[in-house]
# Entry
Amino acid sequence: MIRKLLFLLCITVCVIPAIALAEPLIGGDQGWIEVRCNINDASVSFNGEYKCTIQGGSCTVPVYTTGTPYTSFTVEKTGYYPYQGQLTMPGAGETRTVYATLNPIPTQTPVPPPDYGSINVDSSPSGAAVYLNGNYRGVAPLSITQVRPGSYSVECDLGNYQPYSTTTTVSMGTTSYVNCPLQKIVSPGSLYIVSDPPGAATYLDGTYKGKTPLSLSNIAPTIHTVEFDLSGYYDWKSTVTVPAGGTRTVSATLAPIPSSTTGWIYVTSVPAGATVSLDGTVAGQTAGNGVLNINNVRNGDHTIRVEMVGYQPYSTTVHVQVSTVSAVLATLVPIPGHTTTGTVSVTSTPFGANVFIDNVLRGVTPLTLADIPAGSHLILLRLDGYKDYTTTQQVNAGATNTITAALNPAATPEPTRSGTGLLPVLGALTLIGVYAYRRGK
# Structure
């Protein structure tokens, strides 16, 4: 009797692995697909089949790697444009992460006041940074409202593409349309820019890039214009040819301005981002710290006017003396019923990072948020496998404030693998067989 039992046990030990190896069960290997989205309560479908609902910025769906593969996913919620993307099935024990950004469906296009016009800017491909008269205004496609009638320069700039610039004319109560066809840079170059003395404001093709010394990358391999501006020194301007895949150095010695009949006006606005006019001519916009320096102003009386959407204009008379700085502090008063908030546009490399504003999760990159109160805010970007990115951003009312973050990888330990499968079961069955055989003897 014992010998028969032992014979049957041996047959079982041999047959079970053969069946397991010859006929893998559908769904026997499992992986997971994680969907991250900037909007909670959005529904997620794979190949048109509902799978989960976004909570806390994500949801995870288990899938069987040996079953019918999923090739597409859809994320949707009432009031938002649906998002569709492609899926790649994970391997056994793996997790694949996909990202979806839902954009609200606009309910009504605002009509500009009759004494203003507007500019609609689009780029091909989309996503280019848009500059109006050298000032950053947002990312294409972009609608710029409440623009005074006149002629404006428009520039579109996108990484790895050659910048595109043009001019457009705005008329009262009308919309001007600008399209920027961008040409891809096959092999971009770089610029290393220095000045003596350092600290000069640097402009590349009319766009402010920072202060010297300065390194610029992803520059189109062609002829560019470089300009330096430093208080107390003559402006410097030259052209430079950027080599494809190489680096060109620009070095300039600035000549000091001798004593003359001019002085300076330093304008500070609260909040920052206001437009400043000198004697009826636009002189520029206050920077993130709220300051605009106006150089080479002739001595005498001048009119300073500070304006910002949603605030009452500020105007004052300033007396300028030779080689002297005259300071103006403009504290703008909000207009009742007008907006005192701005827009924050956040992008990251790689994308898909969680965005926290003042320690509150607001979505994942790329992300654009409107109605952010004007003022200083703490921005935190967090993505698994990368170091946290933090910065303080000054949000200006009625303006788009952009944040671009390059995330640095975090060191991760090597994963350990644990053996699983049929080997423990086979070992146990073998021990039982040996024990039964000895008892039979």
Remarks:
- The longest helix spans residues 2-22.
- The first strand starts at residue 30 and ends at 37.
